[in-house]
Amino acid sequence: MRWLIALVSACFLSSAMWAGTPAERLSQQVAQAKTLADRHAYGEAAAALENLASDIDITTLPNWPDTLYTRARYEALGGNPDKAMTTLKYAADLEVLPLGDGVANEPEFTALRDRPEFKALVARLQREAALWKDSPALATPFKPVLSEEEKVAGLSKIWSEARFNFPFFGRIDVDWDAEYMAFLPQVRAAKTTEDYYRVLARFVAILRDGHTRLVAPRELNDRLYAVAPLTTRLACGKVIVTEVEDQALAAQGIVPGTELVAIDGRPVLEYAKAEIEPYVFGFTPQDRAAWIYGIELLRGPLDRSLNLSFRLAEGGAISSVVRRRTNRGGYFPETPIPAEFKMLPGNIAYLRVQEFVDEAAVKTLRENIVTVSKSSGLIIDIRLNGGGRDENMSAVLAILENQPFPGLNWRSRDYIAAVRSWHQTPGWKRDTYGRQQFDSATHYTGPVVVLTSGTTYSSAEQFVTGIRTLKRGTIVGEATGGSLSNPMVFQLPGGGMGFIGSKDDYYPDGRLFNGIGIMPDVPVSPTIADIRAGRDRTLEKAVEMLKVKH
Predict the structure, then answer these.
(1) Which of 33, 232, 295, 487 could disulfide-link 48, Cβ–Cβ 3.0 to 4.6 Å?
(2) Identical fold at 142-331 and 339-549?
(3) In whole angstroms, how far apart are CA 520 and each of 220, 401, 474?
(4) 273: Cβ–Cβ under 8 A, 6 or more apart, which residues?
(5) CATH 2.30.42.10 applies to domain 142-331
(6) Are 394 and 436 in contact (CB under 8 A)?
């Protein structure tokens, strides 16, 4: 039998060596080696690939080295560990082996695992992989005061990750190297870790991207991120209270619609510009306004009270000392109920989705699909949705469609060191998410209205682009935040985390929305009078539109 396999192998070799272009011969030989391996003729399969090394037309092909990893597997399975080890070393020198633990975990190399040279090869691959992962050398633990080396290393890490990965330098007027030099003395002068992270926050904020941000160590949560028991927003050029948690404040007349006019004796807009704006990430006006006047304005140390001055709706002024409380979300706003469903008057279905982190939105929609299908229309409220996982967003969108639908296109920096050595600038890797599949089991075909605001963000914006591309509904409300950039996350000295946006998504037809936001079809913004009256004008408009359609 072995003579027959050898004869088949020889025929394969002969046909592969002389048929077609070098690329075709390589493809044929790889396929023929696999056929032999599928018959457990591993030695012959390895020989078929080894024979390629004598054909210079094949060895000059860019993908020829990839065959070495497969050949090493066949050699190991064929009972030739010495040859397998030699081939693995060759493959490692040509950088075609997976970095990290991939080779070590291959069952085909079980016979090699106790060999010192195999262990050395695995260690080499692990060291190289570590260059692209969080390094323990930088991820030092929290302490009240960091060393100068730690402080400089953290700044340098942010600078380097942004320099090579940030996709939006073309949209901002920044000399990144000059900014790095300007911040070096500032981080060195930071006396405490708290001071240091405030400096880093200002450095990152220069990039003005919503997904490019800094999160301080959790030990500093009550120093930097404690929150007041009331919520505000910018409306008609004024800072207006929208929610009040503290009953004592409500008893003083501080209710939704009350205007906040001063913080610690300083006019609120002046205070926000000086104390808050330099630390806020995000590029679009709507995104920055949401963070400056809604999320960050009243944050600060837990042990330091705020002296707030208000102008009451009915006239008159009042001041109050307000104590902060711990923010359970740390840096991020506290997560509300992920998704909730109810029926509104007029037989209108209402689904509020606060995040796409988990499957709550699609589960809630599926659980209520019978009711939704009998409704006059569906309102999907994502005004407070900061994003989450793309697959959870896509699962909701798939229920609204009955055919495959296009995903977004994207681009990311395509950095090749040799190209740069030739004094050329890096280009772009461009790709698409491809066509997304619809939900074959669950469909809703009725009218849809989607509610958006400046805090509609990330994968929630991707949801809106899908609605618009599919022409599947009407977008009502305010422009979205304008940020979908897939951040890479890394650890910093002292226990903090850095986030650098790495990708620019755009519509299938090439239109941009990162740094712009998605404009609604029907613009609606709450007025001060609406807030005072407890009126949701955006929701009212959506209900009105669906009643007319029905």
Answers:
(1) 33
(2) no
(3) 38, 21, 8
(4) none
(5) yes
(6) yes
Q: Which H or E element spans position 127?
A: helix 116-130
**For residue 6, is pLDDT > 80?**
no
Q: What is the DSSP string of 337-381?
A: -SEEEEEETTTEEEEEE--BSSSHHHHHHHHTHHHHHTSSEEEEE
HSE-CB at 98 with a 13 A cutoff on CA atoms is 8
Residue ranges of E strands in 116-229: 213-215
Domain segments of the chain as ranges:
2-130, 142-331, 339-549
Which residue(s) pair with 497 in the sheet?
215, 491
pLDDT for res 12: 45
Q: How many CA atoms lie within 13 A of 72 on its CB side?
A: 25
Count of alpha carbons within 13 angstroms of residue 92, beta-carbon side? 22
- Mean per-residue pLDDT for 178-200? 98
Give the phi and the psi of residue 139 in degrees, each rounded to 5. -85, 60
Residue 15 clears pLDDT 90, i.e. is over it: no
Question: At what angle are helices 81-93 and 66-77 packed, to 10 degrees?
Answer: 170
d(CA 94, CA 117): 17
Question: Which residues 6+ apart lie within 8 Å of 499 measured at CB?
Answer: 211, 212, 213, 214, 215, 487, 488, 489
Q: Which of 481, 503, 479 is nearest to 431 (CA)?
A: 503
Is residue 400 within 8 Å of 472, Cβ to Cβ? yes
DSSP string, 268-302: HHHHIIIIIGGG---SSHHHHHHIIIIIITT-B-T
Which homologous superfamily is 339-549 in?
A: 2-enoyl-CoA Hydratase; Chain A, domain 1 (3.90.226.10)
Q: Considering only 75-89, 171-185, 292-306, 506-520, which range has the smallest mean pLDDT? A: 506-520
Residues 6 or more apart whose Cβ sits within 8 Å of residue 323: 228, 229, 305, 306
Tokens of 18: 């002389």
Query: Of 274, 257, 267, 248, whose CA–CA distance to 309 is shortest?
Result: 267
Residue 242 CA to residue 249 CA, distance in Å, equals: 13
Contact between residue 308 and residue 320 where contact means Cβ atoms under 8 Å apart: yes
pLDDT at 307: 97
Cα 461-463-467 angle, rounded to 5 deg: 115
Give the global pTM: 0.86
